[in-house]
Amino acid sequence: MSETIEADVVIVGAGPVGLFAVFELGLLDVRCHLIDILDKPGGQCAELYPEKPIYDIPAFPIITGDGLTENLMAQIKPFDPTFHLGEQVNSIERLEDGSFRVTTDADKIFLTKVVVIAAGGGSFQPKRPPVPAIENFEGKSVFYSVRKMEAFRDHDILIVGGGDSALDWTLNLQPIAKSVTLMHRRDAFRAAPDSVNKMRALVESGDLKLVFGQVTGLEGEDGHISHAVITDNDDNEHKLPTTRLLPFFGLTMKLGPIANWGLNLHENLIKVDTEKFQTSEPGIFSIGDINWYPGKLKLILSGFHEAALMSQAASRIVFPDKKILFQYTTSSTSLQKKLGVA
Ligand code: FAD
């Protein structure tokens, strides 16, 4: 059953720019809901380069992708945003009164006055492994993420991959599964050493099966797998009883459903003005890497500036009768109260 949530502002994307928008909107008393496909905030910084140093964030001579995300999360804490992680925004429709209905693939409906699209390079989508007819099993017995662990209880689970996601889910699902097999091409794992050690201890105690090779076929009916066909590194074929397959082959970025939201685009980016960063649809704003205007630079600092100007315009929609005063955080007691420092 779908859940309906009333909101002032819904931000699509919890990357660095979506996160900073929470701060700028918060100073203007606007509370936000953030939705992201990823299971953590931080967008590209968290997913693509968590440990790499960034050198061009103003006043931070050096900060990692994860460090920047952590600082942004601390900075927006006073405004208590609501996160909806692991969910993709599928559609935005305008309602008769000018507000919007935003729907996600987790059956959530948001009724909101303003939408801010901070969707960066677009949707992170799982890479599909090259297994014949795998699409026939997707959503029924093949999954690329774990939304609810209960859906995996008492199953024969095959997890494929050698990174953190594969290892984390191997360790988390092993206690509730009927059986778990972890498969990777070779005996070398990119995941955190602690997870690899825990995984090896489970193999040692006989609670986990570790195999090297590739999935080359799936058997089953009506989308439900019964066996995975595995080809090992000596080219021998085995059939492994499997009722749930979780391949973790990394993520790619695609524009995704944004293309269908009726907005004017420029080469797959959302066209905005440079006064409010509003799209061709009044009330829908777009900031960060996903937008385009003449002279646009895809830098985090550009997104931060866009968030500040967007917030002024968005707050006028949320509070049409309120006068907005320009204030500095250094000298305004009212802003400092909102930040919990005065
Ligand atoms: P993103 O970080 O892309 O976040 C957007 C979020 O929106 C994602 O989490 C995505 O899952 C989510 N999303 C998309 N569509 C949907 C949907 N339909 N529903 C729900 N969620 C959705 N920039 C710099 O300024 N300095 C640097 O040194 C620098 N180095 C970089 C190094 C690398 C390797 C890379 C890849 C990028 C680098 N960048 C750098 C660019 C910087 O990371 C981006 O400018 C920044 O991440 C843009 O932030 P954003 O919030 O606009 O988008």
Automatic annotation (TrEMBL):
Family matches, as SUPFAM superfamilies: FAD/NAD(P)-binding domain
Domain FAD/NAD(P)-binding positions: 8-294
EC class name: oxidoreductase
Alphabetized UniProt keyword annotations: FAD, Flavoprotein, NADP, Oxidoreductase
InterPro entries per UniProt: FAD/NAD-bd_sf, FAD/NAD-binding_dom, Fd--NADP_Rdtase_type_2, Ferredoxin-NADP_redctase_2
UniProt cofactor note: Binds 1 FAD per subunit.
Keyword NAD: no
Cofactor requirement: FAD
Catalyzed reactions per annotation: 2 reduced [2Fe-2S]-[ferredoxin] + NADP(+) + H(+) = 2 oxidized [2Fe-2S]-[ferredoxin] + NADPH
EC number: 1.18.1.2
Residues that hold FAD according to the record: 36, 44, 49, 89, 124, 289, 330
PANTHER family the UniProt entry points to: THIOREDOXIN REDUCTASE 1-RELATED-RELATED
Subunit comment: Homodimer.
Family: Belongs to the ferredoxin--NADP reductase type 2 family.
Name recorded for this polypeptide: Ferredoxin--NADP reductase
Organism, scientific name: Kaistia terrae
